[in-house]
Amino acid sequence: MKSDSKARIVIVDDHPIMRMGLKQLLESSRLVEVCGEAGSVSEAISVIEAVKPVALVIIDISLPDRSGLELIRDLKAIDPGARALVVSSHDEKVYAERVLRAGGRGYLMKDRAPEQIIAAVGQVLDGGIFLSPSMTSRMMEVLSGSQASSPISGLTDRELEVFRAIGEGKSSREISGLLGVSIRTIDAHRTHIKEKLGLRDAAELSFEAIRWMESQS
């Protein structure tokens, strides 16, 4: 980071132990100040409003009320100067590009070494974009046309949320309540997902969604 003053950071993760670990790790570098924590998108919005301006918001993808991707988009209105870095356990091959499209500045898997997390935070605070070397290479190959993207990457962000919820065993009614849309809308998303993934019926959709969720754990 270029400034001698400590950068103000907010951590958004629904696991208190993860938030505590990140806070201790980042503040041990003596370069940042964790000025707020939240366990959901709605809580994060309240916290950021209360402590802004902040330099960086560290966000997990899976949050109880809404997706971390939606929080990244909301940041533009809440605190335009805040950058977003995602630290998540979800497969970077599925989510890293989505994070960048939403306006995020980097993606890091939770299983990375502590020094990598500190390096990623520093790089984003310095105005750069952070991706793992393998993800950077993969994205370059996809852009050059030398590597095809997976069928999952063809889903929209909302379709991916629905797909993930199906993999968690949720019904259309439960998903509609979670996402705040009608059951009819969820059923339309299910139809589009089946078409994009070449699945014949609801049973195949459930099987593929569950298998995909298991691969993420």
Helix/strand-derived class? alpha/beta
**What best-fitting shape do the alpha-carbon axes yield?**
globular
Percentage of residues in strands? 5-15%
What's the CATH topology name of the largest domain? Rossmann fold
Please report the total strand number as a whole number.
5
Features:
217 residues; alpha/beta; Rossmann fold; Arc Repressor Mutant, subunit A; five-stranded parallel β-sheet; 5 strands; globular
Topology of helices and strands:
Elements: E1 7-12, H1 16-28, E2 32-38, H2 41-51, E3 56-59, H3 68-78, E4 83-88, H4 92-102, E5 107-109, H5 114-125, H6 133-144, H7 157-167, H8 172-179, H9 183-197, H10 202-216
Helix pairs in contact: 2-3, 7-9, 7-10, 8-9
Q: Could you characterize what this model shows?
A:
This protein is an alpha/beta fold and 217 residues long. The protein has two domains: 7-142, Rossmann fold; 151-216, Orthogonal Bundle (Arc Repressor Mutant, subunit A). The two termini are 33 Å apart. Helices cover 55% and strands 12% of the residues. The chain is globular and about 55 Å long. The protein has helices at residues 16-28, 41-51, 68-78, 92-102, 114-125, 133-144, 157-167, 172-179, 183-197, 202-216, and strands spanning 7-12, 32-38, 56-59, 83-88, 107-109. Helix 2 packs parallel to helix 3 (68-78), helix 7 crosses helix 9 (183-197) and helix 7 (157-167) packs across helix 10.
